[in-house]
Design goal:
This protein has three helices and four strands. It has about 100 residues and is an alpha+beta fold. It has a single domain, classed as 2-Layer Sandwich (Alpha-Beta Plaits), CATH 3.30.70. The longest helix is centred in the last third of the chain and has 16 residues. It is elongated and about 45 Å long. About 15% of the residues are buried.
């Protein structure tokens, strides 16, 4: 497990924040690919719609790509649920309750 290097107090790979693409709504415009500075998305037009290639490269709490998608295909976790999940992960990690997986 890597050392926490963010304000959330957990290794990034354990933090469940990142986008989901609804393939039924994605028209593969590529706007998310072009505008995401962290290369989270990958244009796979030869193999179907754009996909999330690097989930954990997404900046935590960023949801800017939602507004960019003209078809509303991108969504992010509910923020209240996300905060509750992170809080629980922190408790489990601090208490040494064994391995924490995402």
């Amino acid at each position: 497990m890597t050392t926490p290097d963010n304000t959330w107090g957990l290794p990034r790979e354990l933090i469940p924040w990142g986008p989901t693409i609804d393939p039924a709504r994605c028209r593969d415009t590529g706007e998310c690919v072009r505008l995401c500075p962290n290369n989270v998305f990958e244009d796979s037009s030869a193999n179907g719609p754009t996909r999330v290639a690097h989930f954990h490269q997404c900046t935590i709490m960023c949801s800017n790509r939602v507004a960019v998608c003209p078809n509303g295909a991108i969504s992010f976790p509910d923020q209240d649920s996300f905060h509750a999940t992170v809080s629980e992960l922190r408790k489990r990690t601090r208490s040494g309750a064994g391995s924490v997986t995402s």
